[in-house]
């Protein structure tokens, strides 16, 4: 039996991108192009690594932010890295680059040569949302007295 083709859920994708816009604005605050913010991720007595935010480019209606994470396994495996475009006119943030791979389609046939999931774009934006939410809930930055 043939599987039905995946249909992009635009409402969910747009909702996630809108929520990520708000999360990113809370984390980057008034940073300007070329600036970087490091946020320590910890619980009571454990340090899980650091979330790094860097403003790469600013334009009147967009901002390009790089989000990376470093941690205890850096010598073994590269930490996650995303580039996110903030679109200020529509108040949305979209992942445009993950681990140096760019240009994600709204849907993919599966299986495919790059092994993308049918909803890869949505999954990447959901991952960004979880990552940023964790940073807001558990992050500590010297130059930001309160992330919550």
Features:
single chain; 148 residues; alpha+beta; seven-stranded antiparallel beta sheet; globular; DUF1249; DUF1249 domain-containing protein
Question: Can you give a write-up of this model?
Answer:
This protein has a seven-stranded antiparallel β-sheet with strand order 6-5-4-3-2-1-7. Helix 1 runs parallel beside helix 2. It contains two helices and seven strands. Helices cover 26% and strands 31% of the residues. With 148 residues, it is α+β, with helices and mostly antiparallel strands. Strand 4 (81-87) and strand 5 (92-98) form a beta hairpin. The longest helix is centred in the first third of the chain and has 19 residues, at 10-28.
Q: Ranges with pLDDT <50 over ≥5 residues?
A: none
Instruction: State the separation between the terminal residues, measured CA to CA.
Output: 49 Å
How many whole angstroms does the radius of gyration measure?
16 Å
- How many H/I helical runs? 2
What form results from the Cα inertia axes?
Answer: globular
Mean pLDDT: 84
Organism: Vreelandella lutescens
Protein name: DUF1249 domain-containing protein
InterPro entries: DUF1249
Brief digest:
The protein is an alpha+beta fold.
How is the secondary structure organized here?
Elements: H1 10-28, E1 36-42, E2 47-58, E3 62-70, E4 81-87, E5 92-98, E6 101-102, H2 120-138, E7 139-140
Antiparallel strand pairs: 1-2, 1-7, 2-3, 3-4, 4-5, 5-6
